[in-house]
Amino acid sequence: MNRFGVNRRTILSGSAALAAMASLPRGAQAQAATRLRTYWWGAKERADRTNKVDEMYMAAHPGVTITGETLGWGDYWTRMATQAAGRNLADLIQMDFGYIFDYARRRALLPLDQFVGKEIDLSGFTQQSIDGCKVDGKIYGVSLGLNSTALIYDRETFEQFGIPIPEWPMNWDELGERAAALTKAANRPGYWGMTDNGGSGPGFECWLAERGKFMYTQDGKFGANAEDMADWFGFWAKLRAQGSCVPPEVQSLDKLDIDTNGLTQGKAALTFSNSNQHVGFQALNKRKLDIAMYPAGSSKTKSGQYLKPSQMWSIAATSKAPEAAARLLSYFVADIEAGKILGVERGIPASKPVRDAIEPSLDTISRRGLNYIAFISDKVRDLPPPPPRGAGEVLALMVRTNEIIGFGKKSVTEAARDFMRECDSIITRG
Amino acid sequence: MSVTAQIIRRRRPSLAGYVFLLPWLLGFFGLTLGPALASLYLSFTNYDLIGTPHWVGLENYVRIMTADSKVADSVHVTLLYVAMSVPLKLGFALAIAVVLNKGISGLPIYRALFYLPSLLGASVAIATLWRKVFAGDGLLNHVLLVFGIHGPSWVSDPNTALYTLVALSVWQFGSPMIIFLAGLRQLPQDLFEAASIDGATPRQQFWRITVPMLTPVIFFNVVVQTIDALKAFTPAFIVSGGSGGPINSTLFYTLYLYQEAFGYLRMGYAAALAWLLVLAIVAVTAVAFVTERLWVHYDD
């Protein structure tokens, strides 16, 4: 009967042993080995660099084990929300400006002020780049790289047809005219001067700055009115009509990533994007690309752009080894050797010593990004108020509204009015 | 022998049965019933995954029924999809099954070939391929150009995007086809012989004998395919990149549910949407079973 020699007594003593192990104080376990989990999004290039830095850190700190998890942008936030719900977030989390307010205010992240000057070295950071990661006055993230919005364009094609390249300072109408001229000069079916960016949130935000408005007000309301929206969507309707940008059935193939963007797909010569992404665009484009600032207002003196952390490290509120996580964080953002490995792949390092140390070894494409950030630094404005909850849904609504007008389902005025109504309902609901 | 021992002895065979069932029972209660009940509870709450759910009563359901224009859009898209894809797919499956039932040689090969799309069809790769085939400069338009037709950009035009998904669904006719084929093989041959002797044409035989005799199989396929179509998610998710665009023209109900849940973290609201979908599927199935006796013929 009792072939395996298991009886009630052995089971009882076994469970007692398990219970005893589980009740060991946390400290005793941590002493044996500190295990840190990191979580970030990105492609293979970033994975290689990040893993290398992890290995260097582990070699220098015996007793620390780092495991990394990485996903693409689309699945990243879904999984993160699920992990947050299960109180199972990684210790070190790569965070985005659009999400940090949500996660910090829901108390999923740890305020880092207590570590600054101790575990975390921010001495090389400007106050601006520290403030850019604050939520309600507390530091919840540390910048892994600075970036800004940027036009990414096929310089070779512009030069080939003798069209003036998009250069600062240039206003919105001039951009439209140059793109229309390029469409005309290229004279190729299925090819246009630029992608249709009427649905671009960052584009709109920059355009709105000339009217002295932010996309979201300090108290989390939508900052534009129906007239602003009609003017913005109307501007793009005009560009479509004059052949500056791709028609709606081409634009709607864009799934808001580099792969499906009209520039990558060979449909257009220019698109609205972010400065650090020009590395990714160049990797997928055979022709020589370049970056330029978004158009200026009619006065051509001020830009509506701003510098922002392209991504940051945050520490989970549930982390069991927050000090160790903070030390690893500091290694990523302030250590020169780590900085050399990471390069500008996540954006321009915020720490000046790191920036200076890596500058000589950068390749042409990386240097272009570095120069761009240097060039725009004295032209940009301060960080706008944080986006409220529902901001992501408003971006999707902008894309849809631009399509509704593009496909001729509604007039500009009508679509702008409907946009305002739906936008209000999204923001109210949060 | 004591009474207790007797009871244990009598129970033992069934106990062993339950022990063997344990993995399934654990799965059912832990992974199906438990989460389903939790989702029922969540549907009456406001829950963003990170915080704690708080009770809002019927608010989610009221909003779905009265104040959400996207629900109306997505129900419209889903019903249109069901109404087009189910009859087309079943008609196509039946036609192929009838042809394959003629006793041609190499039947197993054809059967496998025609079944293949069903194996591939639900995959991400095929949905991606579909985008390429039906794009403005895609394969379909190149073929149409041979006949001098300039086709639109099928996948990215709000007037045609849904039809490309219907086509994708019809293309996966394999599994109803196999079921039809099995059904056709069961039909008593003497009926057809008698009909031939009486001078019935093949067309008459099909409509007067094959179809009526096949109604139980048709009924099964209609119910299964309708439920499948109501639940369709992957093709729309991949073809539109999760947006349901252009202009919500491919916003399936399940896709909207997904957006609310995982895009905007409104788990309570999404749970309410999910429960209404369950109720709708139950209702549709119930209607099918009630009307069954009007058109389905069983042998008895």
Describe what this molecule looks like in 3D.
- The complex is a heterodimer of chains A (430) and B (300).
- Chain A has 430 residues and is an alpha+beta fold.
- Chain A has 2 domains: 32-145 and 309-370, Periplasmic binding protein-like II (D-Maltodextrin-Binding Protein, domain 2, 3-Layer(aba) Sandwich), CATH 3.40.190; 149-305 and 389-429, D-Maltodextrin-Binding Protein, domain 2, CATH 3.40.190.
- Helices cover 46% and strands 12% of the residues of chain A.
- Chain A contains 18 helices and 10 strands.
- Chain A has helices at residues 8-22, 26-32, 44-60, 73-85, 97-105, 127-131, 155-160, 172-186, 201-208, 226-241, 248-251, 278-284, 322-334, 336-342, 352-358, 364-376, 391-406, 412-429, and strands at 34-41, 64-71, 92-95, 134-135, 138-139, 142-147, 149-154, 270-274, 289-292, 308-315.
- In chain A, strand 1 (34-41), helix 3 (44-60) and strand 2 (64-71) form a beta-alpha-beta unit.
- Chain A is globular and about 65 Å long.
- The relative contact order of chain A is 0.16.
- The model of chain A is unreliable at 1-31 (pLDDT under 50).
- Chain B has 300 residues and is mostly helical.
- Chain B folds into 2 domains: 3-42, no CATH class; 68-295, Orthogonal Bundle (MetI-like fold), CATH 1.10.3720.10.
- Helix content of chain B is 74%, strand content 1%.
- Chain B is built from 13 helices and 2 strands.
- In chain B, strands 1-2 form a two-stranded antiparallel ribbon.
- In chain B, a hairpin with a 7-residue loop joins strand 1 (45-46) and strand 2.
- Chain B is globular, with a radius of gyration of 25 Å.
- The termini of chain B are far apart.
- The chains are: A alpha+beta (430), B mainly alpha (300).
- At the A-B interface, helix 4, helix 11 and helix 17 of A face loops of B.
